[in-house]
Amino acid sequence: MLLGSTVFAQWTFSDQYLKYTAHYDRPLPGVARNNQPDTLQVSSVNPFFDDFSRQDQALDTLKWYTPEFFFDVPQKVYGLAVSPPSLGTLLFDGVSRTGEPYSTGSLATGIGDRLFSQCIDLSGYEVSDNLVLTFALQPQGRGDAPESRDFFEVLFKTEAAPPNDFVSALRVNGTSLKDFEFYAIPLNDPAYFHSCFQIAFQSSGSLSVPADYWLLDYVHLAPNRIPADTSYDDVSPVYINKSPLERYSAIPLQHFNNGSNQQAFEVELSNNSAQSRNIPFSINANDPRGFNVWSGSQSESGSQNLAPYANRSLSLNAFDNQAFNQTGSVKLELISTLTDDVNRKNDTLRAEFPVDSLWAYDDGEADGVFGLNRPLGYGIRLDLGIEDSISAVWIHFEPLVHQNPIFGTITYMNDETFRIVIWNDADPDSILVSKIHRVAYTDGKRGFVRYNFNKPVPVSGTVYVGVQQMSDLPLGVGIDRNFQNDAFMYYDSLGTWTNIKLGGSLMIRPESFHGGRFTSDVEERKQVLPARVFPNPSYQERVNFNLPVGSPLKRVVLRNMLGQSVFEQEGISINTVDLPGNLQNGFYIWELYLENGLSERLKWEYRAN
User: Which fold has domain 529-606?
Assistant: First the structure.
């Protein structure tokens, strides 16, 4: 997309930046992994079912085989899918569950995220029992579309010896955004009916950036089914798509108390039934920390009619404005109270909107990335009703890689320098303050890194807060596309602040110096965990570990992003380790085992050449 002579970098990694190399596959569990999966039983009354609606980031290990050394596990997301069947989906892409790309030595394609079920005992079944696997799948979601050469694949485990034990049962080619589609796979091969049958889901696409998205939901395996059996008497709230805090998803305490911040908001509901349903609901707001007593209206109830297999947005009234005594949050709980719902576990949607020290427009989950192809600035606009000071900027960066089309050189933006900036005028040259930092990544789609100023910066009126690139390579700031705040997103268009048409919000969060204790709490937690590995990235033949005082290092294990151990050493007298000579460039995890029984896990990158 061209605006003037400045190019936005959002979404289309594969077309704009990546040069693909040959496709390759990684080994399946029976080849390169140890440990044994648990064994599950399945029946009509006790099916294998998961709609990923439990509101945390962990997968249900009673159903899915995900040891800690499996890094190629998909991430659970809550706002990236478009109109999903239920609350929560799984995202398959080209980065690990720690947020690092699978390939760092080249811009490759291949098998990225993979998910394996625990063993399912099918030894008592046969083809005539009509076991059918169904699941819902969506390409792209709010993120990057998989190209036609990319695919999503389902594999079934037979009793054949590795590497021939997993066989392909279905492959879906990449395409641009579509509605969720239910797929059905009958288990019609006698080779499937053994005591350790497993389901495997995997995607193929770019392995260098978070791209080529697939969203998985509503996995169901049971006997006595027909392939068309994808109707469920189940309704679910799926996400909030408009914040109740005016334009913000988070706001500092004194600004919350100074203004009228409540607004009408929206929640999307899903009906997975073949019939229209009139869905009763209730919603209430409170401060879960219990420090603030809500005054006035804090709840609402009603009903909403949904057509068969349809999603619909529910408009809700604003809550009464009030003041908080101290930092807290506005916590919403929306409950579908339909009594004949077959899956009550996905009936409650919970979301918190902090009132502490940060301004935020985003929902906290990255749907894509943004950058410019020039060393210019971009960020968010704040209209301040009262004076304040900004002490830091919290930013979510997504892993991003660029290739020079002429020289073929590859640049990973991790550890590249940039400036955090406050502008105090509509003129992008009116820089109030700036400070140089290096790009750092969080684990997965959520989380922010704090970039501080040397001291709090007084601000008033309208200011712009964001980043300034120091090269013509897009940095990769996260984009949230659930909360629509284009009116407050800006970039420097050759000396003029111009709205960015993101259809969402940049994941940039200024920190109020007067906003409360939230930031100090974070800093205190960081001081408790000082362990680190350096240099990181490493260009040398050895690394050093900075560990807590009084905690000698006992043993180290180095694992690649497949979870495989590539190096181990015991009996370490000093916190320095010589690296093995055959180490390949890429991202790794150091597992550090200390004499006091504690352990640490540290992300690390090796770049020898």
Answer: Immunoglobulin-like (2.60.40)
